[in-house]
Prior knowledge:
Belongs to the methyltransferase superfamily. RNA methyltransferase RsmG family. The chain is 38% helix and 22% strand. The protein is an alpha/beta fold and 243 residues long. The chain starts with a helix and ends with a helix.
Amino acid sequence: MTEAFYEKFQRELKLLSIDLEKKQMDQFFEYYxxxxxxxxVMNLTAITELDEVITKHFVDSLxxxxxKKDLDSLPYNIIDVGTGAGFPGIPLKIxxxxxxxxxMDSLNKRVNFxxxxxxxxxxxxxxxxxxxxxxxxxxxxxxxxxxxxxSRAVANLSTLSEYCMPFVKVGGCFIPYKSGKIDEELTxxxxxxxxxxxxxxxxxxxxxxxxxxxxxFIEITKVNSISKKYPRKAGLPSKEPLK
Length: 243
C-alpha cells in the first residue's frame, strides 16, 4: 500500500515540479490514514480511495504552485477559508514548511480533526480556528491580516469573494480553487470583487495532473481596504450574492 502511494504521488508531483523528502511523503501518508480513520465516524470527505485522495485532494491542493510560483520559497501568511478536512491548507504546509497557515472552518468537529492532524504530524506555524467567515472577517485579529487567502469551498465567486476578501491585506491576494467552466461566473463576479476592494488580475487554467479534469485559479489582488459594510451578516453572502 505505502509503496503504491509513494510511486503514484511522486509521479504526479513531478508534473508540478515539486520534489518532497521522505519525511514529507510519510506525513502525507499519515494524513491519509487519519483522514480515513476519522471519516468512519464523521463526514470529512466522499473521496476515500487512495489513488483519488492523492490526485483530487493532495495534488489538487498543491497545484496552487501553478498560480504562485514562489510558494516554495517565500514565508506567506495564508488563511484557508472553509478548509473542511484541511484542503488545501495542510498539504501546502507539509510540502512548503516555511508557510504560515491558518485553517478556518465553521464546524467544530472538523476543527478537532484538524488539531489531531497538526499534532500527529508535528506541524509548526499552523493553527485551526472555529468560526464563520462572516464573523471572523470582522475580527481585527484576522481582518486584512493575510498575504494570501485560499479556498476550495464550493460557492459562486461573488459569495466566496465576500467570505474571503476581508481577510486579505492590501497588496495581498485571494486565490479560489475552481473547477469546470468559469467564464460566466467570472463575468458575474467582477463588480462584487470591485466592491470588496479587489481586482481580478488573471486566471490560470490547467488540467489536474494525471486527469482530464479542468481546474482554474483566479488571482484577485486586494487594491483597496475593504468597506466596513463587508462581510454582511451570516447567511447573506450566500442568499443574496453581491452583484
